[in-house]
Amino acid sequence: MKTPLVLIPGLLCDAALWAHQSQTLADIADIQIGDTMSADSMAGMAEAVLADAPERFALAGLSMGGYVSLEVMRQAPDRVIKLGLLDTAAVADDADKRKNRLELIKLAETGKFKGVTPRLLPLFLHPDRLTDKPLTNAVMEMAGRVGKDAFLRQQRAILGRIDSRPHLAAIAVPTLVLCGRQDGLTPLARHEEMAAAIPGARLSVIEDCGHLATMERPAAATAMMRDWLIR
Q1: Looking at the domain assignment, is residue 172 inside a domain?
Q2: What angle, 0 to 180 degrees and rounded to 10, lies between the N-to-C axes of helices 133-159 and 64-75?
Q3: What is the CATH number of the domain that holds 175?
Q4: Is 87 inside any structural domain?
Q5: Which residue among 41, 65, 69, 191 is buried most deeply as judged by most CB within 10 Å?
Q6: What is the distance between the alpha carbons of residues 76 and 56, in angstroms, rounded to a whole number?
Q7: Which pTM was predicted?
Q8: Is residue 143 part of a domain?
Q9: Using CA atoms, how far apart are residues 63 and 29, in angstroms rounded to an integer?
Q10: Tens place of pLDDT for every residue, the chain, 231 residues?
């Protein structure tokens, strides 16, 4: 029997973020992609995910998808059977990150949305992958599909999120904490912090990899997720 699995994309991401996982894990998981484009709050995103999800399911989110996953765990912990937190953080934004988000919001609101992704690309990807045209094109096209309006809703939701660290000790399901070694947006130290706080969590690190691990190193990310699902 396959495991119901809900995958939640990050900021400016859609189902393409999980393309390799959706295809390669289909033998052991019934996969659906959570909606992160309709609501403008973490609570609203979590409610949308729960409304579409099976009664009980495994849950994995990357970056903003991890923030949403932690909110799902607060709203409906009894419905989640396994948790995956990928390239994300439990801590809320500091002053510098809030300032950067507000600048990106202003850029998008003044008609320069297409200028947002080139600014974020060096934060999304390992430096060595910035010349990988198929990968960078896939990331840019994905952001284009998400579009300005959803991007603004997502940024406002992220700005309004709480510090989830006090809630980590209450997580009582098998948890995978995964990140790229060179993740510049949510560094390894944030993942070590989460893994230490969640009882029994397993920390997995992908070498030579930045923030979008599931696209940058898809085979490695999928292998770690398969182990998590069958363990």
Answers
A1: yes
A2: 40
A3: 3.40.50.1820
A4: yes
A5: 65
A6: 10
A7: 0.95
A8: no
A9: 22
A10: 999 999 999 999 999 999 999 999 999 999 999 999 999 999 999 999 999 999 999 999 999 999 999 999 999 999 999 999 999 999 988 888 888 888 888 888 887 777 677 888 898 999 999 999 999 999 999 999 999 999 999 999 999 999 999 999 999 999 999 999 999 999 999 999 999 999 999 999 999 999 999 999 999 999 999 999 998
Q: Which of 45, 157, 206 is nearest to 59 (CA)?
A: 45
Q: Max Cα separation, the chain?
A: 50
- The residue written with tokens 């990968």 in the block is 135
Please state the domain count of the chain: 1
CB-CB contact of 59 with 69 (8 Å) = yes
b/e per residue, 162-200, with b = 16+ CB within 10 A? Answer: eebbebbeebebbbbbbbbebbebbbeebbebbbebbee
